[in-house]
Amino acid sequence: RVRGFPHERGSWATHVYLPYTVQEEFLELLELLLSRARTYVSSLAAMEQFHLSLSQCVVLRYHWIDPFVRCLRERLAAFHRFFCVADQVRVYTNQNKTRTFIGLEVSTGHFQLLELVSEVDRVLEEFDLPTFYKDPSFHISLAWCVGDMSGRLEGQCLRELQDIVDGFEDSALLLRVQWEEIRCKSGNKYFSFPLR
Predict the structure, then answer these.
(1) SS3 annotation, the chain
(2) How far apart are CA 137 and CA 114, in angstroms?
(3) 10: pLDDT confidence band, cut at 50, 70 and 90?
(4) Count of domains observed in the chain
(5) Considering the domain boundaries, does residue 91 fall inside one?
(6) Does 93 reside within a domain?
(7) How far apart are alpha carbons 135 and 128 in whole angstroms?
(8) Distances from the Cα of 66 to the Cα of 45, 73, 152, 184, 187, angstroms
(9) Is residue 196 a part of any domain in this protein?
(10) Considering 76, 82, 171, 196, which has the largest number of Cβ atoms within 10 A of its Cβ?
(11) In the chain, what's the furthest Cα-to-Cα distance?
(12) Is residue 4 domain-resident?
């Protein structure tokens, strides 16, 4: 994988997200999607962990980590658990087009996610860091590959993948996600903010 920014001593890559814990049925669905998508792009690899991003990956100086986490904890303290439905297959590329992702976009729960992002953005602004995308497409990435392969994956491939999701037994239950905590990863440190 290609680093989005150079590693610098004392600078920690930091990311705020909702962790998604997978069930066995989800891995079965993922396997079906991957085997179909690989007929279009053979280099696709499954993600090792699954999450929904609430921030871009930003760089924090080491001495800012504790105050940043404190601010996040205060801002997120009032939020309650909520549900999302992530059932729309989409193709994404990162900003500099060095990676392509297949993800499941959220079709229900967008409003609550925007409220969370708005609070996370306020913390990022306090630390003079870039905020989240202006019109975000909230999603759980399933697989990735190097390069811009969106041309191969959109169109026919995307329709076939959506058919697999729509026809998968239990997909309605499986893709209805209850979020119970927010996490922040900074370098090798993880911080958890349970939702009420």
Answers:
(1) CCCCCCCCCCEEEEEEEEEECCCHHHHHHHHHHHHHHCCCCCCCEECCCEEEECCCCEEEEHHHHHHHHHHHHHHHCCCCCEEEEEEEEEEEECCCCCEEEEEEEEEECHHHHHHHHHHHHHHHHHCCCCCCCCCCCCEEEEEEEECCCHHHHCCHHHHHHHHHHHHCCCHHHHCEEEECEEEEEECCEEEEEECC
(2) 10
(3) confident
(4) 1
(5) yes
(6) yes
(7) 20
(8) 34, 10, 43, 11, 13
(9) no
(10) 76
(11) 50
(12) no
Q: List pLDDT tens digits, range 58-103.
A: 999 999 999 999 999 999 999 999 999 999 999 999 989 999 999 9
Residue 38 maps to which CATH number? 3.90.1140.10
Q: Which residues constitute the domain of residue 102?
A: 11-186
Best CA proximity match to 50, nearest among 24, 18, 79: 18
Residues in the chain: 196
Residue with token string 């370098």:
187
